[in-house]
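=== Per-residue structure ===
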Amino acid sequence: MKKILALILAALLIFCMVACSKKEEEETGDDDNKSQAESTVKTDAGTFEYGTNEEGDYEITAFSPAALDPVELTLPKETDDGRDIVGISSDAFKTRLTVKSVAIPETYLYIGDYAFYGCDNLEKVTMADSVTEIGQGAFQNCPKLATLTLSKGIVTVSEDAFRGCAAITEVDLSGAAQVIEQGAFFGCAELTKITISDKINYVSAYAFSNADKITYTVADGAKYLGNAENPYLVLVCAEDLDVETCKVNDKTKLIADRAFAYCSYLDRIELGDAVTVINGTCFENDPAFDKSFGANEIPQVDITFNEYENGRYLGTDSNPYMVLVYIIATNDDDFKLHKDTKIITDTAFEGSKIEDISFEGTEEQWKAIIKSENWNHDKIINVLWAQPAAN
């Protein structure tokens, strides 16, 4: 009798376990189905899919049109249950031929890499000022894109962001834009006007390549971009490759990467007092470009520097030692920096064995020198200032 009772109890236990397991599976399945249902936002134009980014915030990941006709999209601000959507993931609208225009609302902070790549029928983009970053190739190869209202909050226009957008005629980056990367507007054949922010601190050598209709301000051997208040803000490139001298405008803040590359006749440059950003590479040819033509066939730029001790400088008439461009090759482990130096480029100590810098100024003056990122190339360099700190 006890055996029979034990068997019955065991059977009941197994039954309960199986039933509970099945219920859990059903509940889990319901949650999965619920989650799947909640990962889309349906509109008359079509269905937007969303997911989470690395920070756990919600972003649009894909779009399925309701019909084959071109549509004007306003991206959803929220998920179905009211959570903010903050961005567009990589490839989200890639090669969607049905997208005619897109309005990006104020909850969005970024546009991912290649988000609208190859949208052949995209004609108009409007983005709220909340957007701070446009990813690599985000709008690349959108040949009909002609109307572009950019966010005033954009900090970075990434590599190839608008490459091949041949219909764009005007770009306004007068808000917060600090960085314009390589190929950002490459091949924008109808682009005539670009407005640059005062906050700019980097412009790639090839940001505007093959955009031959851009209107530059040309003066004293160089081409400039800027804004209404300062048309000389950025020295983009030399006026032509045969230029022999250049006097940088007194209102110029930045000299673009490789601005004077391949100017083999260039002998003398005088800087303006307002320059705060200059890369050593602005006087160098591009090794990658050279290889395709044969490095020995392209003369290097050979300008006259102002020399002090074993350093080569550029500057103004009043301060010829304003910028330390690079040091002369030496096996010495110390270096004497001129007291009037205001800027140290990112190439200044590249490949050197310098361990100590003697500076003929105060500690406060040393700290005030503008130093490019990684100016010391991750080496520990000790600085000894000659004069005591001011009381």
About this structure: The longest helix spans residues 2-38. Residues 20-37 have pLDDT under 50 and may be disordered. DSSP finds three helices and 30 strands in the chain.
